[in-house]
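I am writing to request your help with a piece of structural work I have in hand. Here, with my thanks, is the record as I have it:
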Amino acid sequence: MLRSAASPHIVARVADVELTEPIRDLASIDDSGRWAGMAWLLVRVDRTPLGTVTTPMSPAGLDRDEVIAAISTTLGESLDRLALAHGVTGGISLDPDGFVPPWRAESERRRAAVLRNGPELTVVVCTRDRPASLARCLDSVLAQAYPRFRVLVVDNSSTSSRATRDVAAAVASDRVETLVVPRTGLSHARNAAVGATTGEHLAWIDDDEVADAHWLSEIAQALIEQPAADAVCGAVVPATLDSPAQLWLEQFGGLTKGRGFTPAVFGPGTVDRRGALYPLPPFGAGANLATRAGVIEQIGGFDPALGAGSLAGGGEDTVALARILLSGGTIAYHPAALTRHFHRSEASEFRRQLIGYGTGLTAGYASLLRSDPRLLLPLLGLLPRAARDLFGDRSLRTATLADDFPRDVLHANLRGMLAGPVAYVRGRYRNRR
């Protein structure tokens, strides 16, 4: 369908392409009548993410041959590696009608075993003053095919707590319970959830996300297949890319920065190639996280001077994960456990977000130093690499940014980093008071 002159414009159409199913044409106009000149495709094989493809679209959209050509160009090497990993010689040929992977039977056997024998999970959704987002998130969680879970909604000092309770009540499910935490701060909410769920495995999702249909099944599979893992982190991809600010966040790295879609395990045996201190976060984010029973208690909980609602503005999740590694624990990155995040749509919100990222990052280092001053020397040794990443051409920080990315936001992010340690100290003082 061709767009009309009156069609509202969005930056990109976000779509999934499952290569084991028939590949369909992609229209340039979405279901709401909005036109996009670009497609952002999450490519999956047997529901496991392979990678992403960004490609321009004409007003006529993309036919399926064009979709296949874009995938082959961008992800051809990834397809070859996937074939080798499964012992498939000759590579994988993309079929417009989909293909049956030779490993399908084994995958289905494992997944059926997970559905029969997987662990009980408690999904924790911490929320404050976002009833519409909460309702959308809960709908996605309650639609999971996984049979053994319940949901704990943590209302963190909402100004209209009635609205949050009404959302939880409206889902009409005995799986959902609500816990009210009057003290503002995401870490307070997280710690209250941990205290209320002793002995339970927790799956954490933010209220501005939706869960993929297989999210809990994949978490359960990772917990079974990685018995040494204290935590499992999944991938977080954009739910929409309607505005430039949402695309800028993805260019900056989104919530899966630097990890891609390759499964990995971090622990005592991987320190030589990936330490716990830099770059943060190298292993996952609290927006899509599962923790085994007792793990958060063992590291002393989430630092209340960090996180949304604190002066630091963030960092509580990555510090908790770093402490798991520093204490000799293990973290599994399992990208097939997928959630979709609704990025902030306004440029001013994006700017504040990156300032918060910078503040939370260095406040997190202050938190780690407070708990273990012996980390000072290792951190000082990382400063040259950090400086290269911050200021070097085509560095880790800037290599994925397009020409239209607002560079002043990078300076704001740096100012946030400079403010982080002071924000952390002030937050500690405020909490003591």
